[in-house]
Structures are given as C-alpha cells and as structure tokens.
Sequence to fold (776 residues):
Amino acid sequence: MRRVFIAGVGATRVDEHWDKSLRDLMRESSLKAIQDSGLSKKDIEAIYVGNMSSGFLQGQEHLGSLLATWIGVPGVAAAKVEAACASGGAALHQAYLAVRSGVYDCVLVVGVEKMTDAYTGDVTDALVMAEDQEYVAFTGLSFVALNAFVYRYYMKKYGVRQEDIAYFAVHDHKYAVNNPLAQYPRPITLDEVMKSPLVADPIHLLESAPIGDGSAALVLCSEEKLKALGKDVHLEIAGSAVATDVFSLHERADPTTLLATVKAARKAFSMASIEPKDVDVLEVHDAFTVLGVIHLEDMGFAKKGEGWRLLKEGQLEKDGDLPTNTMGGLKARGHPVGATGIYQVYEITLQLRGEAGKNQVPDPEVGVAQNVGGVGGTVAVHVVRRVR
Amino acid sequence: MRRVFIAGVGATRVDEHWDKSLRDLMRESSLKAIQDSGLSKKDIEAIYVGNMSSGFLQGQEHLGSLLATWIGVPGVAAAKVEAACASGGAALHQAYLAVRSGVYDCVLVVGVEKMTDAYTGDVTDALVMAEDQEYVAFTGLSFVALNAFVYRYYMKKYGVRQEDIAYFAVHDHKYAVNNPLAQYPRPITLDEVMKSPLVADPIHLLESAPIGDGSAALVLCSEEKLKALGKDVHLEIAGSAVATDVFSLHERADPTTLLATVKAARKAFSMASIEPKDVDVLEVHDAFTVLGVIHLEDMGFAKKGEGWRLLKEGQLEKDGDLPTNTMGGLKARGHPVGATGIYQVYEITLQLRGEAGKNQVPDPEVGVAQNVGGVGGTVAVHVVRRVR
Fold:
C-alpha cells in the first residue's frame, strides 16, 4: 500500500473577487501550492479540479484542461470532479487514489468556485442543483429552505434552544478575525445573530455561510517521490473516504442525521486507525449553524442532540479538547462551494505545521476535515496526520 | 500492481429519448451492466458518472449521489467526472485508478448525456463550454466552427480531397446498420454526404456527429474480487491514460495534430506493452469526419496526411487490418457527449467477447478506445485485452 503525502498548499482569500475570473483564482492557488511544495511544475503529473457550477455560472466546463494550460503544464492528465458542495473533498479523494494507485507520483488538486458570476442564472439556482431537480427543486424550494426543515426538526426532536445552536456562527467569526484569507474577519455577537433577518425560518442571515469566490489547492505526492526529491515527508493523508446517503432529504428516515457523514467518518478513521478522541483539530462543514452541531454528533464526538454542549463548554476552542473550525469555518472563512473541501485541508495543514498564527492549536498531530455535498447526499472525510 | 477487469457492460439505445429523463437513462445502463456482470448490487463500492452538461441542460448536478440512490445503493462513494466530450473516458480512468489503488474492489462507471433537454440554454451553448469562454466562445464561435478550421487547414496542409475524408461517415453508417443501439442505423452514400447542407464550411451535416441522448455503463473489478466471487476473469483494462493539450485550438503549433492523443496513446500502449500493430479493434472519436482521420494518424496507425488511405484501402473494415468504429462510431451510433467514452468501451467489450453480431471482427484480442474532449483539450485512451 502506497502512502500519500501533502507536499504543498496554497489558497486565495475568500471574497467577492470582482477583478478576478474563475481561472485567475484557480491559477493563483495552484501556483502558490506548487511554490509552497518546493517542487517544480514539471513534477505535476495530473490535475483534479473540484468545482460544482462553472458551466452554469461561468459558461465554462473542461476546467482540468483549462487549468493545465493556464499554469503552464499542458500535457498532464486532468479532470473536473463534481459532488455538489463536496466537490473539493471528492476531488481530493480522487487525487489521493491517483497517487495511491501507483500511476501518478505527484498530483495537484484544486477547489474553486466563483459564485458572484451569473452566466445563465444566479447562484441560488445553481446551489439547488445539489438536490433533486425533478422532484424537489422544481417546486421553488431553495437550498436554505431545505436546511431550515432540518433545523426546525432538530430543535423539536432534541429540545435544543436555537441560541445554543446559533452560537456556532459566533465561534466561527471569532477565529476568522485572525485568518488573513477569511471573507468576514470580524467578530459577531449571539444577539446580532439572533436579530439578523431570517433567510428561511428559522435560519438567520448570520447563521448562513456567505456567497463568495475563492480557490484552494494542494500538491499530493507519494512518499517515494518526495524522498527521491530530497523533500521532507511530514503530512500524511492517513484516511480518505467518500460516502453517499439517500439523495433527497425528505426520503430519509431521520433528517437530523447525515448517514453519509457517519459512514465516511467511520471509514476514514478506520483507514487511519484513529478514534474520535485522537482528533486534535477538526474542520466541519457548517454551511448553516445547525449542520455544525449535527456533524459533531454524526462523527462520534457527541451523542445525538448534544453537539451544542461541546460548543457551550468551550471544547471547540483552540485550547479545548476538540479545536474546531479554527480558521473561521464556512460561516466566516467563507464557502466558495467547490473550494471548501480544499480550504479545510489547507487550514488543517497550517495547524499541523504550526503555521496557524494566533489561532494555532497546541502541537496537533491529527487533523480531520469533513465536507458535505447537498444536504448530505455526499460526504467526504479526510484524516491528515503529522509524521515525526 | 493490481489488475483491473471489466466485469459487465450495459447501454441504452442512443436516440432522442423524449420519454426518458437523464436519471432514467443512467439507471437503465447501470442496472444492465450490473446484471451483465452477474454481481450483486451490494458488491458495488463506488460510482463514477461521466457527464458534461447536466447542470446547464437539466438543472441537475450531484449525479453520483443521485444515481447511487436511484439504483438502490445509497451509501457508496460517488462523484461526477467532467472533461467535456472526454468525460466518459476521464471517468473510466478514475474508476480504473480507484480499483487499482486497492481502496475499492468493484466500481460502476457510467457515461450519460441528455442533449435534447434545455433547462437554461440549448446544446450548442453547452458544447462550446469545452473551449475557452473568455477568449474564444464569447465571440459566438460554435464548436462545429472550430472543427471546420481544423478541417480546412488539414486539407490545405496535406493536399487531401474532402471526399477521401468525408467517406468516414459512410463507413460509420455501414456498421451502425447492425448495431441495435445506434441512433442512425441506416446506410448513407458519399454523394449524400457531400450534398448534405454545410453546418460550418467545409463540414457537412452528414459529416457531423448527431445530437442525442444515451447512457452506457461498465462494472470494473479487481482480479482478486472476481476470483473470490467465482467469476471469470476475461477482459483486462491493460492501459488507461488521460492527457491534455494547450487548451485553445488557436494557440497550438499545429492544429492538425492532437498532441493529447499522441501522449495518451503512447502512455496507454506502453502500460499495456502493445504497439499500434497489435490493435485488433479500434474506436476513434470521430465527432467530425476529419477528426477520425487525424486520430488514426496521431495514434500511430498512419503517417500524417495519410490516415484517409486506411479508409480507402478498406483497412478499417471488420475484416481489415485495423477494424475501426465497427458499431457505427460517433457519426452513426451517436455521440451523447459524456457517454461516448463508455459506449466505445462497451462496444470493444462486445467485440472481445465475440458478441458483436454481424459486425463481429474475427477473434480480436486487443481493443483500443480513444475519447476526445473539446478540440483535443483532453484525450483519454484505453486498452482492453482479452485474457485467455
């Protein structure tokens, strides 16, 4: 079995990038990642681009080949990988398999989304394509509305107060303040969250991940190749798993649990031979506050209905038992859909390298990133381990 | 190194399927492939969907997870893979890597495109997204027009008569007659081709692959798994490669050569330890007649400017030296974009199994499929070998 390592990382700031195109963003993160790896461009043998909506929002498909040319490596293998909001995590999984297979030694995986473009329609229309167009989306239901159902049902089922869930947004913003790439690097209060306008009852504006543009990239290499190049072998992708769930929310037995998270986490943890207690730093896909809480439960960090306690008890703080979303999470770092899964691993990498600045977690060894597509139709979980 | 085998295949007819949706098509081909493999659905561990334009044409993304549910295997890993018209071949490459990596034993790879839907725009707008939207497509140039440039340039450079190229369409239609899944199973004459309307000068209507809907699927398994299940181990994917070229046609040194074909073919042939002379049955991506001829040259079967001779000399016939597009090719079997790369391997499989009916090539052992994205921005080449 071949081991796969993260050799370099790069990312753009998440923002409304009115002066940069989709290709500018993915080129910027890619070149940063290659530079960070210390490798030469000619070492890159394949490119995976995680992206959801470039056809609809930019009128541009074929991003793998496009990027290969625009970073100056035409000829390499390339493809775009799409799994709705889990496109980044799914692309990373393919990149991992590509190196592990022995066919490639070094590959570039890039997540990118430019949500402020509107080639054929707006971003709300693009996002709901994660759900079933023929049976759900055609009704006019938005992606936020679907999550509002989950939120309402969760509060009723477990008797949890909204304030205890909504605090997830406050947590995220506190950490975004020290993340130079965050879209909203400013603190917010629980009172502000609860008084912000409702987008889809009970979800407030300040409980929702924002719309933004951004790209993040990783260079993955085999152990053999890194050693042959005289590079350090530090950060191993010790677990990589993707799982699906019944596609439409309304057909699931329990909408307060994302079975795809349960499965992907179990598999990734098993590959890495870790248990939840071994996780030193965590990134969860909190597109809406309630999802952050649900993910903590589904990954085995809390019992169902009790995820909010970790938040309340301070366990998710950088010096807590389970430092979570320490660079701002989806709410405050931002959520450029297809890029998010790669931003998460970018941030885990900074933490494991000790380069997270004021948000640094004390000496972490194991980081986990959980990336969700749709309302849990696909989930990718990655475990990164620092090898001494 | 783990070996990867084709365990089962399935496909729908290529047609204007007004009574079937995208999901109906991909479900049909998937269930046929699983049934053909003799495996149980529970043996499928991951799904790859090759598709280009479901977001733009159907308002539906997240096809991997959608299909997992609609064939009754929610839970498995899944993703969509996109590389324009090479989406099928690129998805097959990922499926191959997935099994070869050792992480998965059996995976399903499905190509699908429903080109007759028009959720946000028509199929001409969708297809040109394979080229550069910001620098090329915005001018209004269509995908056919780009290929018309190649055609005109090729005839001028090599002094080849159009009739000698256009005959590729006649060849394809001759074989489609005996393919029950072909979109246009009827013979045409060279005279009809040359007198058909010009779509983009010099490309005639009958030199162009049609617009159609369809889906094809393959089940890939490891040797170990097939043996454990007591199944025959017959058809090995002996070579699998994807390569890119400079993204935009106008920036290439020589638009009459697709460097991505040259690279992908060399790599796939090298993996399989074969040379061009070892190929017993071939599928080339003749979206337009001139491309069929160019591909023969770029893969090493003829010198540049002389591909048409193979056609003229009868070498591409089922009993010739290089039986090519023996089920109708893109022109007459049809070209449902993201499905084409899988249809090609479906047809190679029928040939290697001796199940090609009236189009059967005498006792073939090695089949090759070449699938092109854009005007050669991405090319996938697969070598399938019958193991005795």
Q: What stands out?
A: The first strand of chain A starts at residue 4 and ends at 11. DSSP finds 14 helices and eleven strands in chain A. The two ends of chain A are 20 Å apart (CA to CA).
